[in-house]
Amino acid sequence: MIKRRNTKSVNIGNVTIGGNNPIAIQSMTNVSSRDENALIEQIDNLRSAGCQIVRIAIPDMEAAETLARIRRRTDMPLVADIHFDYRLAIEAIKSGADKIRINPGNIGDAAKIQAVVNEAKAAGIPIRVGVNSGSLEKDIMERYQGVSAEGLAESALRNLMLIEDMGYDDLVVSIKSSDVVMNYNAHLILSEKTNHPLHIGITEAGTVRRGKVKSAVGIGSLLINGIGDTVRVSLTADPVEEVLFAKEILESMGLRESKFDLVSCPTCGRTEVDLRSLAEEVESRLLALDDGVLPLGSKIAVMGCVVNGPGEAREADYGIAGGKGKGIIISKGEVVKTAPESELVDELMNLILENNQNL
Predict the structure, then answer these.
(1) Residue closest to 232 by CA, chosen among 186, 201, 254, 272
(2) CA of 16: how far to CAs of 83, 265, 287, 339, in Å?
(3) Residue-wise pLDDT tens digits, 60-76
(4) If I label 118, which of 39, 179, 270, 348 is the partner at 20 to 30 A Cα–Cα?
(5) Which residues of 135-161 are buried (b: 16+ CB within 10 A; e: fewer)?
(6) CA 100 to CA 81: how far, in whole Å?
(7) Is the distance from CB of 117 to CB of 127 less than 8 angstroms?
(8) In angstroms, how far is CA 146 from the centroid of its own chain?
(9) Is 211 helix (H, G, I), strand (E, B) or coil?
């Protein structure tokens, strides 16, 4: 059981993060922020995938005006991503943003930041203070001789304190690096010095193939340490991919209930069935089941030999243990049937459906 760090609760539209609330999944639109229909379509797709908070870049006033129309068409919590122009932040708040993301260091002088803070306070919405490797202040860069974990944490704390001193503490903080180890160390430092909710991720992680690995290691290591209240997987891909993989990370760590937990062995020279095909077919057919057919978190084992197979399958709710061209079907630790390899998946699925038809 992962013990999460104690952070403040913050409301982002109809989603509450921090405290004892579940870790929320966030993503960001990548269609034009001025294309109302494209934005709505993408937001709907993200919602269907399991996204709970969506961030939208607001590069100009036209995008801010589009946000107001988007707000009237969806109840999805919307975060306005602002850089450089404080007036865009103010307009986005007026347009109905549920949270704004700013880097105070590139917004301008204290008076401009104060104007944004005043507007957010009046609207009752949180501010996410975002710091990343490319936005560190000059004096911090000089002190640490470049980008460092210590510098990222110091910059975040400085900007949090700046807004707190302006009379507002409804804040979320994020510090992101594409360097997994630096990202990890920076969060360890920061989490010891603030109780504001943390939005975590590995920025600019890369393509689906490489970015998933960096994100799994970088995000997973923080979650194991109880760090993280919202999460985004940053991939050079359709944002839906980000959401689906974020769900996988949370499910694999027991931080979110999964539809099922599929356990299958890696194969070896003892394997005497086409285990890869069996496992892939079982996974595909389990995913196709309607919600509620199988209790959440059910463990399904697909094993390929007589050495570890029967034991592993018996520990699952349902399982297959393959032999020479055939296999056994196991339910709740008991062998219920032997079947030819060609019939194993059908028999397993029939058993699952029979046992859960009254759920």
Answers:
(1) 201
(2) 25, 39, 29, 49
(3) 999 999 999 999 999 99
(4) 39
(5) bbbeebeeeeeebbbebbbbbbbbbbe
(6) 6
(7) yes
(8) 29
(9) helix
User: Which of 118, 130, 122 minimizes the C-alpha distance to 28?
Assistant: 130
Strands 230-231 and 318-322: what pairing? unpaired
Match 């949270």 to its residue by tokens.
99
Nearest CA to 256 out of 8, 22, 5 is that of 22
**Where does the chain have alpha helices with state H?**
36-49, 61-71, 86-94, 104-107, 110-123, 138-144, 149-164, 180-191, 208-224, 239-252, 275-287, 309-314, 344-355
Q: For the chain, how many residues are written?
A: 359
pLDDT tens, 171-207? Answer: 999 998 889 999 999 999 999 999 999 999 998 888 8
Closest residue by Cα to residue 256 from 270, 244, 265, 272: 244
Q: Residue 300, class by beta-carbon neighbours within 10 Å (0-12 exposed, 13-18 middle, 19+ buried)?
A: buried
